[in-house]
C-alpha cells in the first residue's frame, strides 16, 4: 500500500475516528480530518492531521475531497444514536445516507481508490439473528440507524460496479475505550465510568442481563490498518464473538474503580435489543485480524484514560 499516501477520515474528531487518524499518521500517511464537531472534540484531532471543521453533507466537503484527492476515504462520521434514529428517521437518513452519498460522489470526482466504511454489527442483524452473527446471516436491521448503515453498504457496491472504487465495510460490535462519550450504543461504559468517578449512582436499564459484544477501540484501529492492505472488496464483522451483559460491565468497572456504589436498576428501555455478538472469523482469515485486548484489560485502560482526563 506504499503508493497510497493520502487518507481522509470523516468523523476524525470523534471517539473511534480520532484513534484511527492517530494510527494512520503513525504509519506515515498524510491525513486530513473532516468533522463538524457536533459530537467530536477538536482536541481529539491528532497533531499532524489537517483539520477541516465541515459537515459531510456540505458542498465545502465535496469541494475539499475533489481538491485534496485522497487515495483512501475512511468514513466514520455519522448520526450514531439508535434512539435518535428511532425518534427522527428523516434526520438520521439525511446524515447517514445523504451525507455518505455526498462523500461518494466527491470520491468519484477525486479518483479515490477505496472507501473504508465504519458500519454497524450490533444494529445490523436484529434480534432474530444467530448468536454470534456472521456476515452471511440475513441482515435485517430493526432501527433506522441500522437500516441506513445497510443502505450505505449497498451504495458502496454500486460505486464499485459503476466507478471501480473498492468498498470495505467494517461492521463494528460495541466499541469502547478512551475518548468515548455516552452517545453511542456502547456508551454505557463511558456513562458508568463518568458516574463512578463523579461519585454519582450509575443506573442500569432493566435487569442488566441484556448482552453486547464489547470490542476495545485499539482492536478496531488495528482492523482499519489491516483494511488498508486488503486489495479486494469485503464486509467484515469486527467483534470478539463473546456476549457480555451490562451487569457484568457495571460490576467490573465498580471493582476497577474501587467504588462502593452497588448496582441500581431503572426501567428497561423500550425496544432495546436483548442480545448481540459478532462472529469475526472472516476478518481473521482474510484480513489477518483478531481482537487482542481482553475485556478486563480494555476496561482498565479506559478507566485510566478517564481518570487522567479529569486530573
Q: What's the structural blueprint in terms of helices and strands?
A:
Blueprint: E1 6-10, H1 15-26, E2 30-34, E3 50-52, H2 59-68, E4 72-75, H3 82-87, H4 89-110, E5 114-120, H5 144-163, E6 166-172, E7 174-176, H6 188-197, E8 204-205, E9 211-212, E10 214-216, H7 217-228, E11 234-238, E12 244-245, H8 246-257, E13 265-266, H9 281-287, H10 295-310
Parallel strand pairs: 1-2, 1-4, 2-3, 4-5, 5-6, 6-11, 7-10, 8-13
Antiparallel strand pairs: 9-12
Helix pairs in contact: 1-7, 2-4, 4-5, 6-8, 6-10, 8-10
Summarize the model shown.
By secondary structure, the protein is of the alpha/beta class.
Record keyword descriptors for this entry.
311 residues; alpha/beta; Rossmann fold; UDP-galactose 4-epimerase, domain 1; 2 domains; seven-stranded parallel beta sheet; 10 helices
Description of the molecule:
With 311 residues, this protein is an alpha/beta fold. Helices cover 41% and strands 16% of the residues. It is built from ten helices and 13 strands. Strands 3-2-1-4-5-6-11 form a seven-stranded parallel β-sheet, with helices on both faces. It has a two-stranded parallel sheet with strand order 7-10. Strands 8-13 form a two-stranded parallel ribbon. The termini are far apart.
Overall mean pLDDT: 94
Under the CATH scheme, which class of the largest domain?
Answer: Alpha Beta
Instruction: Give the DSSP E fraction (strand runs of 2 or more residues).
Output: 15-25%
Low-pLDDT stretches: none
Rg over CA atoms, rounded to whole Å, is: 19 Å
The helix count comes to: 10
